[in-house]
Records
---
Amino acid sequence: QVQLVESGGGWVQPGGSLRLSCVASGITFRLYTMGWYRQAPGKQRELVATITHSNSANYADSVKDRFSISRDNAKNTVYLHMNSLKPEDTAVYYCNARWVLEYWGQGTQVTASP
């Protein structure tokens, strides 16, 4: 049974920082491209960042230079370090694992507001 469990979301003032974590189980984690996506109310889910099995990272233009994705294969965990958060970053953030099949976490809310 595959599980992706996100944590670390919450409320932060604009300009603040958060770190999201996603722990995977039931998959051979090191083989998977891991990613973070987000969905704001009334909008489609969008890519935030991905990191391949070989640690090649890719970012949406809107978060480049502010967010950083990393992975720890020994802990089956992928992280999203978010700095200089803006109100438009407010969304539910989802962890994604993709190789032959694709899996999603349940999401964690991030709110950046005064």
---
Amino acid sequence: QVQFVESGGGLVQPGGSLVLSCVASGFTFSSAAMSWYRQAPGKQRESVAFIPSSGTTTYLDSVKGRFTISRDNAKNTVYLQMNSLRSEDTAVYYCKAPALGNYWGQGTQVTVSS
């Protein structure tokens, strides 16, 4: 069974940093592209960052230069390093394997506020 467990969210001041983690199970992680998504209150869920099994990462324009997605295949884990956080980054963050269908974890709340 495909599962994702996100962690690392919290309350941070504008300009601060967080590292999100997502542990995946139930599929061959090393062969799967992974994405981080976020959903802010009253808004649609959007893709924030994408990392293929190998190759180039891609990012939502508004997070380029601030967020970095990475993966550790030995740990079945994908990370999202978030720097220079802004209030508009406040959202619930989810990871997903886009090719595996509609499987989602519980998400982790990120709140950027002074």
---
Amino acid sequence: QVQLVESGGGLVQAGGSLRLSCTASGRTFSASNMAWFRQTPGKERDFVASISWSGVNTNYADSVKGRFTISRDNAKNTLYLQMNSLKPEDTAVYYCAAVSQPFQVYRPVVAGKVQTYDYWGQGTQVTVSS
């Protein structure tokens, strides 16, 4: 059974930091483009950051650029999201996602779309207090 499991969420004050992790099991995602999205109640799931399977290419939503960093450790089959200078508007459930096709050409616009991804984690809550 293929699973993506997020961890690292929690409650933090504005200006603080959190590091989210997404660990895969059931298959390797070391050759898959991956991404982080976030969602608040009643709203659509929004793109946060994406990364190519090699880790060389990344892209960010304007709202998090300069504050968040996406990275991956393919040896550990794990995706990360370092979140610094957190703001109350960053409060959301954060989801990691992966494509099924290996060695897919990385296109930032495509990588920012929900429908690009075949696998999703269950989400981890991030709450930023003011």
---
Amino acid sequence: QVQLVESGGGLVQAGGSLRLSCSASGNIFSLYAMAWFRQAPGNEREFVASISRNGDSTHYADSVKGRFTVSRDNAKNTLYLQMNNLKPEDTAVYYCAARPGLSSPRATMWSTDWVNYWGKGTLVNVSS
């Protein structure tokens, strides 16, 4: 089992940047493929980005490609999401997600039902 805690959210103007972190504890972090999801008010939770267990493979939703970068530091048990050129439509609660087993899941595998562990989320609010 793994516990996930997100941080780094906040209020930012359009065009600005934020870096989210997700700190993991309770089990060996490198055993988990990781992902970021987000949920805007009134919308379903959606996939944003994922990274393989050793960090050599990443996938992104089309809406964030070229603007967001997912990374991880297995020595520090931490997942990151660097968000640049933020837009008002990026406003949402961002969740860290973990799934053990597969080393490098395809992006299409990352549904909310497929995730084993969730953090509680951190709010990102992008003003226009």
